[in-house]
Automatic annotation (TrEMBL):
Protein name according to UniProt: Alpha/beta hydrolase fold-3 domain-containing protein
Organism ancestry: Eukaryota, Metazoa, Spiralia, Gnathifera, Rotifera
PANTHER family per the UniProt record, alphabetical: AB HYDROLASE SUPERFAMILY PROTEIN C4A8.06C, ACETYL-HYDROLASE LIPR-RELATED
Organism: Rotaria sordida
Highest taxon above the source species: Eukaryota
The entry's keywords: Hydrolase
Family annotation (InterPro entries): AB_hydrolase_3, AB_hydrolase_fold, GDXG_lipolytic_enzyme
GO molecular function: triacylglycerol lipase activity
Entry coiled-coil feature ranges: none
Signal peptide: none
Residue intervals of the Alpha/beta hydrolase fold-3 domain: 2-128
Length: 148
């Protein structure tokens, strides 16, 4: 699973490459903290940056895998609350479709070197656990990209 240490080299590289400051949020993780805990953590930080006078036009939210899904959920939450959205959103391999029914799952099932449908299904059933699945199934994990 990803954490600050796993991504610090990549984040430092991006910071130097684009000459920008970076914040890495250690949000609460499942299953100990079910949704929307991680979204709430992200919103608290984002709103604090806005209160500190940082314009949303200068902000970017980025996430990988589950963090990519969290990025999408955060943008959804910002839109639902009529808060300004960031200038950009970057999702690296976002885990955004727990139903595994999207067209890309079918299209890439034979060529994806990292994940395959059976592995994803196994992860949902065992890693997220059936108890937690009832929570995630209540949340919409895909946004309409034209809104971003």
């Amino acid at each position: 699973m990803g954490d600050v240490d796993a991504y610090s080299g990549f984040e430092c590289h991006l910071s130097r490459l684009f000459n920008v400051s970076l914040l890495h949020l250690e949000y609460r993780l499942v299953p100990e903290h079910p949704l929307p805990a991680a979204v709430d953590d992200t919103l608290v930080l984002y709103q604090a940056l806005l209160r500190d006078g940082i314009s949303s036009s200068r902000l970017l939210i980025m996430g990988d895998s589950a963090g990519g899904g969290l990025t999408l959920l955060t943008v959804q939450a910002l839109l639902a609350r009529h808060l300004p959205i960031p200038h950009a959103v970057i999702c690296v391999s976002p885990w955004a479709d727990f139903s595994s029914s999207g067209e890309s799952y079918i299209r890439n099932r034979l060529t994806d070197v990292m994940l395959h449908l059976e592995g994803i299904s196994w992860g949902i059933e065992r890693v997220l656990a059936r108890l937690y699945f009832s929570t995630i199934s209540k949340h919409r994990f895909c946004i309409k990209y034209q809104h971003v």
